[in-house]
Amino acid sequence: MAIVAGVDFGTLSVRVSIVDSERGLLGSAISEYPLHRKREDPDFATQSHEDHMRALAEATRRAVAAANISGDQIESIALDTTGSSVIPVGEGMQPLDDYYLWCDHRAKQEAALITQLARLEKLDAIQWCGGVYSSEWGFAKLLHWLRHNPEKRSQFVSAFEHCDMVAATLCGIQDARRVKRSICAMGHKWMWSASLGGLPPESFLAKVDPLLAGVRTKLEGEYATSDKIAGTLAPEWAERLGLRAGIPIPVGAFDAHWDAIGAGAKPGDVVNVVGTSTCIIGYAPNAQLIPGVCGVVPGSVHPEMTGIEAGLSATGDIFSAIARRAATTVEDLSQGLDRYRAGQTGLLRMTWDNGDRTVLVNPNLGGMTIGWNLVHTAQDELFAAIEGTAFHTRVILDRMSEYGAPTTRVINGGGIPQNNAVLNQVYANVLGRPVLVPSGKVTGIGSAIFAFLAAGAFKTIDEAQEKICPKHTVYEPRADAQKIYGELYELYRKIYFAFGQPEGSTFGDVLPKLIQIARG
Question: Three-state secondary structure along 33-67?
Fold first, then answer.
């Protein structure tokens, strides 16, 4: 028997879960921290490392109390975080600024520059992250920081993803070169690949901008999967968290990737972490390059498999926007959705309200609804939006299957599926596969599994999953709805590629032009 702490850093709070290898979840606690926004700059989103660590200490102590155990009984602590959330550091691992949070989009110009040069130079690494480098990712954010903080450049020693920075801090590591870096984080967001020699070449980075000259060396170190140990809990932080010094801390990862493990995913499964947006996570023994997919990284989800990440840029955010425009709530607007039949609304809703993350990788798109008449309601649009997110997910799963990563089962994780049976049934009907929904929350369960591995309580991920992952409620496809959705999907695909591709398509310039005109 072993007791561990699984930590999940979200956008607005950190959750610490105390889990027993025999009895399951013993207790948990949440502590919030501020998200810094600027009214004059909607792309700005930062958070303080100090706020994160304060919240972690507070939540850990409260979780231990809720579990009714002594902190000395905790045998390991593991941490996942949002990503790409990037922090520049100076000597002694001291933060030089706040984190560029995952949803900070200030680095659009830097990302476009990286993409343009990578295509021109035929950089292999860009193909493994969908062919387009995102403003949400590491090199773009770091370059933006270097460009806009000239007075701090001389102090710059290195930059870290949130999961690596927190682990290093807890371990008391003060030398950036000794920090173990997560293959999950660096593979999906920094174009790191063992098969391609690590990070992109120095010659490429320096050509993007001379400010990136030498950065490759500053990011060097040991890159590791999450079955490896980042270090042990330092006495100072053991006291602050109320735990025992010296317990192992495994290499961290991104929240959605570990949520997939916590949801009980096996090879051939895909996990839709459905929240404000959707992160789609899968893993396979030997996945190949998949065009338009955010990342294909060996060892990123399961240490012995190839991890695949894709997603929708907005899901719950779209539902909320529909309700807001109707001056109501999603909860109220959802009453009666169970009476809708497949295709009843006559609407097709393209879910591009926040751009397209996969498979077009095109941020210059906008939401579109086709088929309006004079008596349609906001509830009709909400149901069509649920169908639209399911169609978009099918586009992604079809692309994965085409390139060697077929999907047998779909697990709907995240916050929305737990409370939305209509969405789960629509997904099963559209995707033509069983949709499984965990019976309990999985946040922190993936972290706990890797903590158990670090503590030696389980030998394999499969063994740990069988013991502590929640059971599933299963939604089977319904033949009548599946047939209708098969016809609608062909229409959806036609519109998706005709309006979504900027080049070589009939209407590819319409939505980008609308955005350009609106911005003046």
Answer: CCCEEECCEEEEEEECHHHHHHHHHHHHHHHHHHH
Structure tokens belonging to residue 32: 């919030």
Evaluate the omega torsion of the peptide bond into residue 70 and state whether it is cis, within 30 degrees of 0. Answer: no
Q: What is the pLDDT of residues 342-386, one digit of tens each?
A: 999 999 999 999 889 899 988 889 999 999 999 999 999 999 999
Please work out, in degrees rounded to the nearest 5, the angle formed at the alpha carbon of residue 287 by the alpha carbons of 283 and 289.
Answer: 125
398's CB contacts (< 8 A; 6+ apart) are none
Residue 121 to residue 312: CA distance in whole angstroms: 29
3-class SS of residue 183: helix
How do residues 82-94 score in pLDDT, each as one tens digit? 989 999 999 999 9
Q: Burial of 387 by CB count in 10 Å (0-12 exposed, 13-18 middle, 19+ buried)?
A: buried
d(CA 56, CA 172): 15
Nearest to residue 168, comparing CAs of 155, 181, 156?
A: 181
For residue 402, is pLDDT > 80? yes
pLDDT at 211 over 90: yes
Report the DSSP beta bridge partners of residue 458. Answer: none
Amino acid at 473: T
Closest CA to 508 of 313, 277, 352, 354: 352
CA distance 312 to 356: 7
**Contact partners, residue 486, CB within 8 Å, separation at least 6:** 432
Report which of residues 140 and 268 the model is more confident about: 140
- Burial tier of 105 (Cβ tally within 10 Å: 0-12, 13-18, 19+): buried
* Contacts for 204-207: CB closer than 8 Å, 24+ residues apart: 204/117, 204/118, 204/121, 204/123, 205/139, 207/117, 207/121
* Residues across the chain: 520
CB 182 within 8 A of CB 227: no
- Tell me the pLDDT tens digit for each residue of 181-208: 999 999 999 999 999 999 999 999 999 9
The residues that bridge with 46 in the sheet, in sequence order, are 36, 100
* pTM of the predicted model as reported, rounded to 2 decimal places: 0.90
Q: Which amino acid is at 204?
A: F
Residue 518, pLDDT above cutoff 90: no
Instruction: Report the 3 state secondary structure along 324-361.
Output: HHCCCCHHHHCCCHHHCCCCCCCCEEECCECEECCCCC
Q: Which amino acid is at 215?
A: V
Q: How far apart are the two ends of the chain, measured CA to CA in Å?
A: 63
Composition of the chain by helix, strand, coil, percent to 5: 40, 20, 35
Q: How far is CA 418 from CA 332, 394, 414, in A?
A: 17, 20, 8
Model pLDDT, residue 363: 81
Helix H, strand E, coil C: the string for 270-285 is EEEEECCCEEEEEEEC
